[in-house]
Amino acid sequence: MERRNRNILVVLIGIVITVAIFSSFGLGLFAPDTAKIQLPTPAASPTQEPDGADDYVWVDITPQTVQHVIGNTLSRPDSYGRTVTIEDFWGEGESGVTHATVWVDGGWTHTTATQPGGTVRHSIVGNGQFWLWYGGSSQVLNGKAEEDSADLEGQRIPTYEDVLALDQATIAAAGYEEKEGLACIYVETVPDSQGYVEQYWISVDSGLLACAETWLDGQLVYRMIAYTVDQPVPEEASFTLPDGTVLHTVQR
User: Domain residues for 241?
Assistant: First the structure.
């Protein structure tokens, strides 16, 4: 009888363990996948939760997760305009400043950049091609838009796609912080073979790169800033060549 009771007890313990394991892991196989990634805010307290917090998965932003978070929570607006300032620091306080106006609409981009010497450079990218010309000239260079011939927002204006293209091993730090009042995802790279360190701030609100800096031996050598964004693209935006050819018409 004692042996029979012991066998019954062993069976009951096995049933309890099986039920516990199923409760912990098995239910997840049948529950609908409705979770969403929720980005924290820099000023939020550790105990603060958003409305509908049960529907969100809180993801820490680390060098290992930052590209996944960017790729799954942010997206580039289809239509917008903004002003971009680029500073190149040449040493001893000297710098060259480029001011660019960028219009983006329906996969087309028109960038007008006034370079340090006063030269105005225009570029339009769309439909797999680029058109390039300079102010005061009617000569237009046209060709296939490839990564090494034309970028999305104009020459030397980085985008958040540059962050997504980084080798994860080159990301030294990542987090979530404010930059000039904007809530941003921050990414910093390890020094490259020449010692350059890249820093990026991606606006959570617009999904666009708000600031990028390059440092060498503790000295700032390059900065790009674009803190404000107009959505959709401003009414004055056009995608027209010097000869009047309209490459793209903005749909209002």
Answer: 68-248
